[in-house]
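Retry 2 of 3 after timeout on previous attempt. Resubmitting structure tokens to design endpoint.
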């Protein structure tokens, strides 16, 4: 499992004193690209091979909110690999243990030239590894 550290910035907090929900999607996006990089597939290499990935679905379950200056991490794991899409699980953990939210995002592989959906190429399959979901 891979983790990406984050520290909540002041401008990410809303009027309720917690991270505004849209920022979680940004956290997940950054963590997913860091995950691929750590597994040998930096995004520029993916693009140079003629591919992109696009988000097609995200489901998030919140338990508690992060607050300004909270130290947290985003845990990342491959949940599922299909023919043209794959799913990534995320958990946001305050202080490395308290899960504040969990999510699953489905990505589809597309041609970098805008030509549409593609089968998952070996370089992406290799980087994703064997699925080991964080949740059932």
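Retry 2 succeeded. Sequence:
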């Amino acid at each position: 499992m891979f983790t990406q550290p984050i520290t909540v910035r002041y401008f990410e907090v809303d009027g309720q004193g917690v991270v505004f929900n849209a920022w979680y999607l940004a956290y997940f996006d950054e963590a997913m690209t860091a995950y691929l990089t750590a597994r040998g597939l930096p995004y520029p290499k993916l693009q140079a091979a003629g591919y992109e990935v696009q988000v097609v679905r995200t489901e998030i379950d919140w338990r508690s909110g992060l607050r300004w200056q909270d130290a947290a991490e985003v845990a990342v794991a491959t949940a599922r690999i299909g023919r043209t899409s794959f799913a990534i699980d995320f958990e946001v953990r305050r202080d490395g243990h308290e899960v504040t939210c969990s999510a699953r995002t489905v990505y589809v592989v597309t041609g970098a030239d805008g030509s549409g959906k593609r089968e998952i190429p070996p370089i992406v399959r290799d980087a994703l590894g064997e699925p080991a979901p964080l949740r059932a």
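Attempt log closed. The chain has a mean pLDDT of 95.
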